[in-house]
Amino acid sequence: MEKLKKYAVVTGASSGIGWHISKELAMKGYSIVAVSNQAEQLKELKNKLETEYSIEVLTIDCDLSQKEAAGNIFKFCQEQKLEVEVLVNNAGILVYGEVVNVPVKRAETILQLHMNTPAILCRLFAELMVKNKKGFILNVSSISAVMPYPTISLYGPTKTFLRQFSRALRTELKGTGVSVLCLLPGATATALYDQNKVNVPLATKLGVMKKPEYVAKVGVSRLLRGKGESVPGFLNKIIMLIVPWVPNFIIRIIYKISLRKR
Ligand SMILES: NC(=O)c1ccc[n+]([C@@H]2O[C@H](COP(=O)([O-])OP(=O)(O)OC[C@H]3O[C@@H](n4cnc5c(N)ncnc54)[C@H](OP(=O)(O)O)[C@@H]3O)[C@@H](O)[C@H]2O)c1
């Protein structure tokens, strides 16, 4: 009898950490439902993973900042009768700058993309996973979750939401067979950064930035071992410990100096 395929839904699978998480899961035998708004790159991922591993890759080209996105992805999986065992909420953007200067549309995009869509995807898929008594949910937050800092005032706090939401959900689902991991990467060498402003190759060489394949490997391995949180890299673990204790007046001074330098 043919073995039932098990599927992993991965958002933001077309590049960076999401691409490598898809690869890690494919290596472990999962077929992938790859979601992003880059049709060409999704096709590339499909060709690569289906050639290298004996799995299937289904692609969904959709804008995850749209209100109906989570419902549409769930509906697609239901219609295709896929047994979804893993959900990875990875898609994200970096919005840099003072809130009053951020275009309203961009502010709405990050809030929907980092909070509403992942939370509703968790809501929909977790219910099925509980019924199946098995499942893994990986929410990609960031070490910025502990940094309510100026100029990343939309980015950091949306990642705080994802962290706290993951913690609460993990507690609710304890004993159901469904495990929730919050991955908190530090600086990672991906397209998230404007390559004209950040010297990504140099930062990676100096070890300040991690490679996305490393972050993905740590995340997937911790997820499948049922862990609750993961901060890849020793330096990032130290940053996570120290940063919440930095008093606000120090942050104000640093911000003032940075304003003078602009
Ligand atoms: N890089 C870092 O230093 C770092 C650190 C901590 C946490 N993270 C988090 O890691 C996650 C992955 O980021 P990354 O570094 O791998 O960056 P990335 O290479 O830019 O990947 C982001 C992914 O999300 C997709 N995406 C963005 N907006 C979307 C939308 N509206 N609809 C559908 N897909 C969308 C992107 O597709 P497009 O190609 O269309 O943009 C891409 O596939 C993010 O949540 C990010 O916040 C990154």
Largest sheet: 7 strands, parallel
Beta-strand segment tally: 7
Query: Per CATH, which architecture?
Result: 3-Layer(aba) Sandwich
Strand order of the largest sheet: 3-2-1-4-5-6-7
Cα separation of the termini: 66 Å
Tell me the series of helices and strands, N- to C-terminal: EHEHEHEHEHEHHEHH
Q: What is the name of the CATH class?
A: Alpha Beta
Question: What is the count of distinct domains?
Answer: 1
Which homologous superfamily in CATH is the superfamily? NAD(P)-binding Rossmann-like Domain
Task: Describe what you observe in this structure.
With 262 residues, the chain is an alpha/beta fold. It has one domain: Rossmann fold (3-Layer(aba) Sandwich), CATH 3.40.50. It contains nine helices and seven strands, in the order βαβαβαβαβαβααβαα. It has a seven-stranded parallel β-sheet with strand order 3-2-1-4-5-6-7, sandwiched between helices. α1 packs across α7. The longest helix has 29 residues. The N and C termini lie far apart (66 Å). The model has no long low-confidence stretch (mean pLDDT 95). NADP nicotinamide-adenine-dinucleotide phosphate (NAP) binds next to α1.
